[in-house]
Amino acid sequence: MYSFEPNEEQQMLIDAVGKYAANDLRPAAHDAEESRDLPKKLVDKGWELGVLQASTPEAYGGFGERSAVTSALAFEEMACGDLAGAYAVMTPSLFATPILLAGSEEQKKAYLPKVVEGAWAPYTAALIEYSFDFDANALKTSAKLEGGNYVLNGEKAFVPFAKDAEAMIVYANLDGKTQGFIVPKNSAGLSVADEREKLMGLNALPMYRVKFEDVKIPAENLLGGAAGHDFELILASMRVASASAAVGLAKASLDYAMNYAKERDVFGVKVAQKQAIAFMLAEMAIEIESMRLMTWEAAWKLDAQKEDAFTSAYLAFTGAADMAMMVADRGVQILGGHGYIREHPVEMYMRNGRGFAMLTGLAIV
Amino acid sequence: MTIEFETPKPIAQQQFVLKTVAQEMMRSQSREFDENEHEIPWSYIEFMHSAMKSVGGGSLAPKEEKAKEGGEQKEKRPPIGYQSLAAQIEMLAWGDVGFYLITPGGGLGAAAVQAAGSPEQKAKFLARFNDEKPTFAAMCMTEAGAGSDTSAIRARAILDEKTNEWVINGEKIFVTAGDKSFNVYEKLGKGFIVVWASIDPTAGRGGMRAFVVEAETPGVQVTKLEHKLGIRASDTAVISLVDARVPFENILGKPTVEKTTTGFKGAMATFDATRPLVAASGIGVARAALEFLKEKLTENGVEIRYGLPRNKLTSVEKDVIDMEIQLRSAWLLVLKAVWMADNKKSNALESSMSKVRAGDIVTKITQKAVEIMGPLGYSREFLLEKWFRDAKITDIYEGTGQINRLVVARQILGYSGSELR
Questions:
Q1: A317 at the B interface (CB within 8 A)?
Q2: Catalytic: B6?
Q3: How close B118 comes to chain A (CA, Å)?
Q4: Are residues A104 and A19 in the same domain?
Q5: Could you tell me if residue A186 is inside a domain?
Q6: Which member of A182, A298, B138, B355 lies 3.0 to 4.6 Å from A316 by CB, making a disulfide possible if both were Cys?
Q7: Fold topology of B264-413
Q8: Secondary structure of chain A: what % helix, strand, coil (to 5)?
Q9: Whether B409 contacts chain A with CB within 8 A
Q10: Sign of the Cα pseudo-torsion (A115, A119, A122, A126, in order)
Q11: Residue A201, phi then psi, degrees to nearest 5
Q12: Is the pLDDT of residue B340 over 80?
């Protein structure tokens, strides 16, 4: 059956997250970006909404079954408030969700309760590498099995909260395949850069380079245990998360531009009454809805374990990333000169929106 | 409610059958009837008529679900009439959209009766589509000077009180299946056309009414069949009405004018229901083109490497991936719009969204496919160039992409027609 309406439980989550996004995240976004500082209280409040907890089974400390659809719905709402804030709130999910999806029973029992039961804590993951040809399926960071240990070598970039991380999942190239490894805090040979990453956008989110020089970790820390795991499932879930965030960001841009256009006087009417602007708004709305449905479908296919789920996730991600850029660009354009001024958020949406295509790995929900 | 994308079983089964029809009855004759415009593919028309009759109705319109008598109470399933219809249309258009447009049945003419007619009118005018012979009906709205701006319609209907007849004068253009609906052919049943005319020009849109005009009514004439860029298997007629006399009871809606626009809203309601279906027909064409392109690329050893980052893909790979995203997302918009129609949710916004998106992407996809295929794309040895020509109409008929953008913009901004002109 086809159906296009969130169920009651999902709607409650959407409403709760939406409220937090509109009342807490969005009002704080500008100052957080400018001061490169996201208030801890804000993140804690988002964490308490329980998005990750709701998709972690009781056996591992949560209170629900994982649903990619539900997570995508919640994440879209959160990202609509502020992308950096949404990434920050969901950073522990970068560590927990891959374990939930691909970890062995022992790993789930050992790590998940620690992450989901308590207060927000900096558990994170390292996927991105600082290279123009970065490809999650062809990593330069390597893992080698040596005498009962895996030895990691390489450098990762854009690792959220790496500085204080309790533990992180590090993705590395093991015999040509990408695999995740659970790397504990203070592992010998692991070093986090002192300086934060300096990026075009997402400045409220603390991200760091992380170096691995002969970092030895026990063999049982390979995600999924001795046999390893299917990285494609993790990657697809990251892509769905990115896609839903892209939809949320685009919606924020459309909403702002639309409200502005309905207030702004021009030639005796509101600027939204000019077809040139009204058509842009219509196209933005259509593009957003298109990619929202693509994202929902991909998420649903992941949940239903459909054969083409990974391809769907890739298409949704690719389409949503392009859409977000297009919509964010139009958002700035509709405000004209004012769109270029940092007092309005649309320029930030444009900077943040450019990241989706290359920053897979900042979120998984 | 829930969020779900599983194709319902009845739709999957129906698509399986229709695919064979599309291949055997449509694709095989596509080129012939593209080259011989105004010839009629009788084998298709007769086959479709008997096929549709055998499943309970001589048209594609959604069937009312009848409760089985005596049998045990079945679990109540959600209605999927429009969803199923959209899927049928998509598949038929994948076969040949020109042929699809001359699928016998009531088409837009019957849709207007269905939307605005009284129970008596429905009984009187719609029964014929289940008769032995295939039968057509058409909608006559557009005029030379009135396209998207339907308020500019000049056709007039005046009541002759002596005979209790409407006397209609005017000229209608772009009447899809106008020839088969109005002219009588030995192999066809007697159809009708639905003509939009004003009963009170001072009342603007509020004075607009639709009239059922039976085939071969004196004073009415198909004066021209258009020669078109594409969809050449489908006849597009000019119909002139000179003192055409129509019985009083053939008016759809009230014969008197009130200071409202209800008469016109009937027409617009028809379009809310049909826009996603038109979008579906375009999407069928685009899917045909994209599948053909991918087949040819595979034959030539070009692999599409899904999953690679954007900056590592070749230009052709990027194009194909974009085309797939466009096609799928447009189809999902259609599905959502018809799902809303099935569930009695107001879908004016979603209908227009799906139409805008489909109009955009089917033209882009078919254009790009021709480009990527190079000289082969331009050759009439393949159907690709035909699909490119066929696809363009999607962005034009049943409201151009521009008028639908206006509808979408008004809805999201909360503006009336006078606030956003």
A1: no
A2: no
A3: 32
A4: yes
A5: yes
A6: A298
A7: Butyryl-CoA Dehydrogenase, subunit A; domain 3 (1.20.140)
A8: 55, 15, 30
A9: yes
A10: positive
A11: -140, -170
A12: yes
